[in-house]
From TrEMBL:
This is PH domain-containing protein. Coiled coil: none annotated. InterPro entries: CFP-6_PH. The chain crosses the membrane at residues 12-29, 35-53, 161-179. Pfam families: bPH_6. Residues 54-158 form the Low molecular weight protein antigen 6 PH domain. Keywords: Membrane, Transmembrane, Transmembrane helix.
Length: 181
């Protein structure tokens, strides 16, 4: 199993978490509304986690899992038709083109971690796409009738509804707390 992350996004997430933690005592010491500081700090921390820290690719011999801001999708390799790197990493499957949040541009800096003891190594979007293409099976030409048995290979999507809802609720609450000031 290999995991691909974007180190610059994770560094920014850590910086935002530090800012969120520092804002709480500063806001409480200066007085004012008790909700004015903690709610925006929670919002900043949640956005940093959901948008900058959580996105990743998980590559196994059986599937490619894409964890984005809105959903996690698992693609069995036999359902993947192509992996492109023209405008970032794009996965083409029988469901269409899936653009990924982790590598939205061809110059994105990524890190590949393979296994538990191996160190992370930097990879470009083009190198990552080439490595992912190695897993994509060659198209099969069928002469004659289809096979008698077919094993299902569903593409699974799991929405991150709670985190998106929490970001919306905390964003509105932060705005309302700031408006009361």
């Amino acid at each position: 199993m290999s995991t691909v992350v974007a180190p610059p996004m994770r560094i920014l997430a850590v910086a935002l978490w530090v800012v969120a933690v520092v804002l709480v005592p500063l806001g409480l010491l200066t007085g004012g509304s008790p909700w004015l500081t903690p709610v925006p700090s929670l919002f900043i921390a949640l956005v940093a986690w959901a948008v900058l820290w959580r996105p990743r690719f998980v590559v196994t011999d059986e599937s490619l899992t894409i964890v984005d801001v809105r959903r996690t999708s698992t693609y069995p390799w036999r359902r993947v038709q192509e992996v492109r790197a023209k405008y970032g990493v794009e996965v083409v499957s029988s469901e269409g083109v899936r653009r990924t949040w982790l590598a939205t541009r061809p110059t994105a800096r990524l890190a590949l971690h393979t296994g538990s003891g191996a160190a992370r190594r930097s990879v470009s979007v083009a190198e990552l796409a080439a490595q992912l293409r190695e897993h994509v099976p060659a198209p099969v030409d069928h002469d004659g009738p289809p096979p008698a048995t077919v094993v299902a290979a569903p593409i699974r999507h799991r929405a991150h509804g709670w985190s998106v809802t929490a970001m919306i609720v905390l964003g509105v609450a932060a705005s309302m707390a700031a408006a009361q000031r």
